[in-house]
Amino acid sequence: MSEVMLEQKSALHSRQAQQARTRARWRNELTGFAFVLPFLLAYAIFLIWPVILGFRMSFFNWSLAGTGTDTFLGLSNYVEALGDSNLWGALGNTLLFTIISTPILVILSLVLALLANMAIPARWLFRLAFFAPYVLPVSVVILIWNWLYQPGYGLINSMLTTFGLKEVGWLTDPNAAMMSVVIVTIWWTVGFNFLLYLAGLQQIPQETYEAASIDGANAWSKFISMTIPLLRNTTVTVVILQVISSLQLFAQPFLLTGGGPNFVTRPVLQYVYETAFTSFRIGFASAMSYLFFLVVLIVTIVQFIILYRGEAKGNE
Question: What residue stretches are annotated with the ABC transmembrane type-1 domain (predicted)?
């Protein structure tokens, strides 16, 4: 009888202890949720709700001028957007910018990270110099490069004429304008990718390189057979982030060239902006925004599929 009572008391104490742990866990979770709740509310108010409202607007003749905002158009805005040659031209400019800038930014950032990771005096100065432009606001960046690109007194054209070369209309020549935007973007944003690669390099154990040196490997073979494979995850991250960032091109051409000359540097987001706030066609601009979102989403999914397949092959 006493053994049964002891077992019942033990079971009761066990249940009470479990209930106490459950209450403590719920108390901790509710406390954490209370701290996160203000952010969730702000996120819902300033991001989720505008996304839902914008999607609704895309089905209406919504205008900043206040006319026809209640006129339901169905899919007419989307059909018009798919047949809009200006949108296709802007998409082509965006893709061209992405194709040109992404490989350069990835390769250059890796090279700079390798240089800054070398055991040389004052290497912190190189790290600072490579990363510093990234912290500048885009308006300051454009102000600097607008002066550099100017004909006559601009530093770049002055150097060209010093060597007997012709001036280049960096901002006025349709053949040079896109490359001008690419150069500005590279100078401004390479610091972020550089920092990611530098962090990846510092995660590689030095013992690995020392063992390879003992086996007779030179610097090039260590770079090809060790550094690049060990930086694979970093490279994938850099490429994905860079492609998404390049597809969101807006401020550089908008402030530097205004999308010109002849709209050769006008990206999708600038065309959407002009449609919404110059032509006042908010509904049509919303439809274009969601179509472009699908493009970015598809590109991102393709990148993750390639990443997944690469990891699967690496694990075989």
Answer: 91-303
pLDDT at position 7 is 57
Alpha helices in 225-281 (DSSP H): 228-230, 232-247, 251-256, 268-277
**DSSP structural state of residue 166:** P
Q: What are the phi and psi torsion angles at 240 (to 5°)?
A: -60, -50
CA distance 248 to 244: 6
Structure tokens that stand for 279 in this block: 């032509």
Q: pLDDT tens for residues 1-30?
A: 455 555 555 655 666 666 666 766 777 777
Report the CATH architecture of 81-315. Answer: Orthogonal Bundle (1.10)
Query: Global pTM?
Result: 0.83
**pLDDT of 112 above 90:** yes
How do residues 243-299 score in pLDDT, each as one tens digit?
Answer: 999 999 999 999 999 998 999 999 999 999 999 999 889 999 999 999 999 999 999
Residue pair 74/61 in contact by the 8 Å Cβ criterion: no
**Separation CA 193–CA 68 (nearest Å):** 46
Number of Cβ within a 10 Å radius of residue 299:
15
Residue 37: predicted pLDDT: 81
Structure tokens at 249: 């091109």
Q: Specify which residues 281 forms β-bridges with.
A: 63
Domain boundaries, the chain: 1-50, 81-315
- Pull the structure tokens for residue 258: 């205004």
